[in-house]
Amino acid sequence: MDNGGTAGTSAIEAYGLGKRYRRGWALQDCTFRLPAGRICGLVGPNGSGKTTLMGLVTHLLKPTTGSVRVFGALPGSEEARRRTAFLAQEKPLFRRFTVAETLRLGRELNPRWERQTAEDIVRAGDIPLGARIGALSGGQRTRVAFALAFGRRPDLLVLDEPMSDLDPLVRHELTSVLMAEAAEHGTTVLMSSHHLTDLENSCDYLLVIASGGVRLAGEVDEILTAHTLLTGARTGRGGPPGLDRHTVVESRVSGRQVTALVRPDGPVAGDWQADSPNLEEVLLAYLRSPGTPPLVSPSAQADPKAAAA
Asked: By the 8 A CB rule, do 96 and 141 touch?
């Protein structure tokens, strides 16, 4: 299958993207690029603009300013609709339908339907095809929703908190299903989630939105490498000197100890102990410090000409 996953291809490219409602801006001046073939975690506090962004990408909403392209096409175009699947947090399924009827509906509505893929996902969860959707557990319904989404053979799968209502064991199981299917078919995934540990285990790309704008974007490894976690003894009102030339994302005092997450600009002077942060530490620091200058890695930087074409 041609999934658009060749080197240099953009699955999503947005430039100056904004959406305004009556109450104000939900998203403003949002510029980023998501390369094809990545599993991207979309992170942000409630009300940060995540759902609005997914609505713009899937053409459920129209932008107020700026532009967005899906594999180079407008979100509302036939090309983009054919290549995109969206799974909402509510996972809307007809509760009176059986699983078999649900999959049959998927086949009738999608010319590129891949029956074997959809049925394999369902059978791997030991879900009877004759069972009604309304009688399934939350994890089973999510598995059926995944089967519908991957059965469409999308090149881009957009997931809005798909596993927020599941227990940790089921989340882990379905995350493995998601990763395996995306890897096999070369599917690009944009997935919003509040479960930071799940993102660390499944995503190789990251997009962080806060206050309606992009705060972090890029490969997970690039983002982690760009940061250092420093620990030092508290002296007066702060820690050891030597951070003036660096970007301090967050500094926290606990007893006699100061911990600072920084984007170093060269060697760090002073009596600091340096460690590598994990993804959760980086994400929480940026979410707690919305005034920190954004970090967009080279691979996530959008081309304004491509976004406006």
From this structure: no
CATH class of 10-222+296-300: alpha beta
DSSP letters spanning the chain: ---S-STT-EEEEEEEEEEEETTEEEEEEEEEEEETT-EEEEE--TTSSHHHHHHHHTTSS--SEEEEEETTB-TTSHHHHHHEEEE-TT----TTSBHHHHHHHHHHH-TT--HHHHHHHHHHTT--TTSBGGGS-HHHHHHHHHHHHHHT--SEEEEESTTTTS-HHHHHHHHHHHHHHHHHHT-EEEEE-S-HHHHHHH-SEEEEEETTEEEEEEEHHHHHHT-EEEEEE-BTTBS-S--TTSEEEEEEEETTEEEEEEE-SSPPPSS-EEEPPPHHHHHHHHHH-TTSPPEE-GGG---HHHHH-
pLDDT value at residue 5: 42
Domains of the chain by residue range: 10-222+296-300, 228-276
Nearest CA among 69, 68, 85 for reference residue 191: 85
Q: How confident is the model at residue 119 (pLDDT cuts 50, 70, 90)?
A: very high
Global pTM reads 0.87
